């Protein structure tokens, strides 16, 4: 890797760490850059996953204030997501990518619809639950959210582009919670999924240490930038950012 390629990977890591903390989809920045340096697709994907782990942790730390009082929720959703993330990492090394990639734009599109309609859908769902005597503030969103997080995390362990958009769409609909606090949980869950996939890849997959280290440094810096920017965004603006990034993700994935 030349000096210019190294600088490009480092810059991509900063950008990915920033956007991952605010929304997700940082992989759409780093993955093409790694491919441009000559790395094979699977090696690039594995190296990217390993490198983004420190950035996920950095972003989660930046949102620590919004995590207060959510320990139980994080533990429940995190446990399910760890299982899904490991399953996705195994799928990456055992299945052809074509069949899985076909449905990715559909999943992201569905998540964007949930993000846009989340205030109305969540309010309607809470009214229906209250009328039926249910609890609109279920701490983990019930079986629907746990199942959705399981499959979203499997996708995250497999590739991860717009993984955060899926999380925000699901949690925004099924949790009676402020969007910034949901984003804080998203960052922790993403860190867990990237972490379990990275541990698995360390033992069974090929990766490029130079790329891993450059993305790790860049994403750590970006995680702090993203936390400072993301925490100041009003819910409406944050939803706008999520939708914009999600649309870009769909277009880029369909053109791959």
Automatic annotation (TrEMBL):
Q: What keywords are assigned to this protein?
A: Cell membrane, Membrane, Transmembrane, Transmembrane helix, Transport
Where in or outside the cell it occurs: the entry states: Cell membrane
User: Does the keyword Transport belong to this entry?
Assistant: yes
In the bilayer, the protein is annotated as:
Multi-pass membrane protein
- Top-level taxon in the UniProt lineage: Bacteria
Is Chaperone one of the keywords?
A: no
What stretches pass through the bilayer? 7-34, 46-63, 75-96, 102-123, 144-168, 188-216, 237-255
Pfam families in the record, alphabetically?
Answer: TauE (PF01925)
Q: Which InterPro entries match?
A: TM_pro_TauE-like, TSUP
| Listed PANTHER family | MEMBRANE TRANSPORTER PROTEIN YFCA-RELATED, TRANSMEMBRANE PROTEIN YFCA
Which family is this protein grouped under? Belongs to the 4-toluene sulfonate uptake permease (TSUP) (TC 2.A.102) family.
Spell out the protein name for this chain.
Probable membrane transporter protein
């Amino acid at each position: 890797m030349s000096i210019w390629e190294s600088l490009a990977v480092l810059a991509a890591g900063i950008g990915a760490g920033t956007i991952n903390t605010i929304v997700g989809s940082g992989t759409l920045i780093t993955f093409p850059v790694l491919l441009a340096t000559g790395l094979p697709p699977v090696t690039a994907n594995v190296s990217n996953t390993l490198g983004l782990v420190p950035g996920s942790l950095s972003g989660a730390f930046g949102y620590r204030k919004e995590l207060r009082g959510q320990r139980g929720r994080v533990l429940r959703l995190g446990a399910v997501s760890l299982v899904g993330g490991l399953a996705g990492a195994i799928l990456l090394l055992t299945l052809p990518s074509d069949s899985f990639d076909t449905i990715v734009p559909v999943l992201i599109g569905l998540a964007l619809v949930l993000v846009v309609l989340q205030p109305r859908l969540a309010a309607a769902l809470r009214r229906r639950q209250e009328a039926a005597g249910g609890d609109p503030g279920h701490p983990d969103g019930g079986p629907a959210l746990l199942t959705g997080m399981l499959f979203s995390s499997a996708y995250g362990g497999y590739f991860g582009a717009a993984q955060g958009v899926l999380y925000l769409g699901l949690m925004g609909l099924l949790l009676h919670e402020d969007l910034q606090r949901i984003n804080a949980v998203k960052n922790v869950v993403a860190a867990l999924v990237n972490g379990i996939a990275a541990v698995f890849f360390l033992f069974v997959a090929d990766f490029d240490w130079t790329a891993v280290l450059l993305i790790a440094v860049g994403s750590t810096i970006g995680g702090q930038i993203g936390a400072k920017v993301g925490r100041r965004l009003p819910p409406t603006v944050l939803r706008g950012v999520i939708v914009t990034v999600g649309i870009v993700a769909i277009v880029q994935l369909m053109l791959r």
